[in-house]
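Work Package 3 (structural annotation) set out to generate three-dimensional models for the target panel prioritized at the project kickoff. During this period the team completed the workflow that converts sequence records into discrete structure tokens, so that structures can be stored uniformly alongside our sequence database. As a representative example, we reproduce one entry of 164 residues exactly as it appears in the project archive.
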Amino acid sequence: MGPVILSLGSNIAPKRRFMEEMVHEVEKALKLPVLRSRMMETEPVETPEKQEWFLNCVMAGGFDGTPRELLALCGAIEGKLGRVRTSIKGPRTADVDILAFGDYIIQGPDLVLPHPGFLRRRFCLEGAREILPDFIIPGVGVSLTRYYETAIKSLGEQAVIYCD
């Protein structure tokens, strides 16, 4: 099947602490080897209102379950870290998104894989390419490295600052 790829983010203080806790929870949930990109500070994109910048990273590993079981686990991690959904794409203590689940392609009401933002958000592409450069993007049929090389021009205005 291949690895699952997750994006993690927080833009409510204390962001660093929330990120460390999310990383720890994801490490417990995924099978080894678990990979993690560098931490990035990113400008919010696709948000309806001005928000604080995010801390983000991308993680990957194996998972012994279904995509919906992983979705439920991501929601549980967000809830454990105090995420409250008061508005769509509003500020959040914890955000754990499934970017890809192996080679699955799903178009459901509650789950779309690959994640719709995966190929539009610079931090997702850069983080995933950093840890899994040869991963073949489901439905696209090219590696993250090859896709990134062509997509970076259109994503160049999205600010990403590496923090570690």
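The longest helix spans residues 15-29.
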